[in-house]
Design goal:
The protein folds into two domains: about 400 residues, TIM Barrel, CATH 3.20.20; about 325 residues, Alpha-Beta Barrel (TIM Barrel), CATH 3.20.20.210. With about 775 residues, the protein is α/β, with parallel strands linked by helices. Helix 8 runs parallel beside helix 9 and helix 12 crosses helix 14. The structure holds glutamine and zinc ion.
Length: about 775
Amino acid sequence: MPRIASVIGFPRIGADRELKKAIEGYWKGRRELDEVRSTARELRERHWRIQVGHDIDLIASNDFSYYDRMLDTAILLGAIPERYRRLGLDAEDTLFAMGRGYQGPRGDVTALPMKKWFTTNYHYLVPEIEEPAQIRLNSEKPFEEFTEAKALGLVSKPVLIGPYTFLKLARGPQGGALDYDAGLIDAVASVYVEVLRRFIGLGAQWLQLDEPYLVLDKDEGDMALFRSLYSRILPARTSAHGSLKVLLQTYFGHVGDCYETLALLGFDGIGLDLVEGREGNLSALERYGVSEGTTIFAGVVNGRNIWRNDYAASLGLVDAVGRITPDVAVSTSCSLLHVPFSLEGEDGLGEPVRRHFAFAVEKLGELRRIAELADQDEAGLRADKALAANQSLFDGSRVRRDQAVVERLAALRPSDFTRHPARAERRTIQREELGLPLLPTTTIGSFPQTARVRAERARLRKREIGQEDYDRFIAGRIDSVIAEQERIGLDVLVHGEFERNDMVEYFGQRLKGFLFTRNAWVQSYGTRCVKPPIIWGDVSRPGPMTVRWSSYAQSKTDRMVKGMLTGPVTILNWSWPREDIGRKEQTEQLALAIRDEVEDLEAAGIRIIQIDEAALREKLPLRRSDWHRAYLDWAVPAFRLVHSGVRPGTQIHTHMCYSEFNDIIRDIDAMDADVISFEASRSDLTVLDAIQAAHFETEAGPGVYDIHSPRIPSQEEIEERIGQILHKMDAAKVWINPDCGLKTRGEAETWPSLEHMVAAARYVRARLEGAC
Ligand code: GLN
Ligand code: ZN
């Protein structure tokens, strides 16, 4: 029998983001819901046909979603909180209300919270289960989409988020912890049993249940929960009406710590990620073997990179599994949702470059090829021209190394990663030199990117205006925000970042080594997509990137203007990295490039420089035992490499967009910045306890108001926030700033909010100074 090729999931947004355009058009009242439905149906059909065209055996259905699959699963299980039901909207509008909030004639509710999907840049909605009694089969979506495919002649493999992952990621009433009591487990398992029955009735052969939560470290009781769910669900595979195979699909890591349990449960298929979870999964297979009747789905086509597959390496993996069991199917490593749609239309990349890439559509071809090659004998493989051509992509000739960069990295010494003198000593010097007041006020960097700012950038791109006109416009914006910040009385000013479209692309475009695509969008959340740049070669900085506007801004005021840079770890994490060299080496290359910029800013008279690491936490490995060895041990030193060369009096700031760093607080301190600002206004401020407990040395500005909301906070409420902060932190180390950059806000709320913030800081400052 020819080897089975299985695709875990396919991008749903469309080659030209048709789904995004349809849904957003509907939100703006420009389209009818029926148009959205028919666009969705067309996309599903097109995407299935593409996969059929590539001879994929197990093609997913129900991988489609209007907004998010976790949200769909919540709705499937009836976990719709009362506040959304009460609106009395139809099915799609209820879904959108849960996804993005609702404000209108029927009420005013905020959206469900959103969180990062494991280590990807995709965000899921956090389901809220108010009570087990709510749980029942509540949607026809998976069945309808299966039937839709069947009408096109395709017996698809329906995919669902599994009950264990669903429950582990869901929250209880009002977002509190969920109680996994017997009633809840029973209710959830019953819905899946019902789903199995329905699919047997519809003639499905395989059902894929996604359980990525299995690749995380386990808490006590986790495997008992898993077992009690599946020991109820699996018996429903056979009934008087037929039977169904269940594929337990894992991804984003290995399941070495629970594989034995999975094997004992007797799934028909177990899907293992042999890219991100290679070692752990292979050694578990070797140790525990494979039960009779179980097919191992070897995830060898990487769903998280854009590079061509190395066929020889993939075949080696399939072989390794093949030595343990004869029943091996080949699969993507995870859903292809996380890669761009196709290379078609990327004509800006020449053929010598393009042939190194494989987006979702091209990965289908790779999967088919690997399935075929895996069935060939030695002689067949030796004669295979395609295999030879594939091998030539990995012979090291892709890019010529930049010797200057290679040598600069090789010459690095441990001392290059340490700034002198120590932080406490620098504090004294900086206090003297910078002359800042107690509780200094500042912002995170960007000011509103108004329609006008974006329009001018678009006009420049379309060559409707020249560079000089554009620069004059930017200078005008800077003049205006400098004047405004002075009027309000902020202590440390910023130039506003009007010249930047994005905090990574802006730098990528000014560095050597990056490539940009035209249409390589990937979904980030809801209908939002991002288009990360590609790190193609060794990275270096041909010339200054930010000095001009920072110096210009500084020339307009007697107050200090903060220089504003993106850090190396964030640039790496929000780009497509290379695979021919490691992440550590790429981050160090980036760090040296940013280091040159830091030094140029300093030489130009900028005395405070902020290096944003908004995405540092994002790629923290899923398992705690890998945190340091596989990530922090090089990421944190790379940050230090950026700033270790500055004078003691130059103050280095950093910024992070979250407050979840209780567990890595020592590592954040080890970045050795002088000041850090971070998001805190929406959190419960336990981070302040962590700061206190860890004797955190870095001065810190926990955001005093939420910039994600258009609300204008009152002076009193900010004073109260500052009070809470001072309760836990030494006032001499506290900065006052908003949560994050202001670029997504309007002018109308930005200035009054900042006025209230400065007034609150002044009031508290006066009180403190009066007291001593
Ligand atoms: N300096 C950036 C800004 O203010 C930081 C953005 C971010 O943290 N995501 O926009
Ligand atoms: Zn931020």
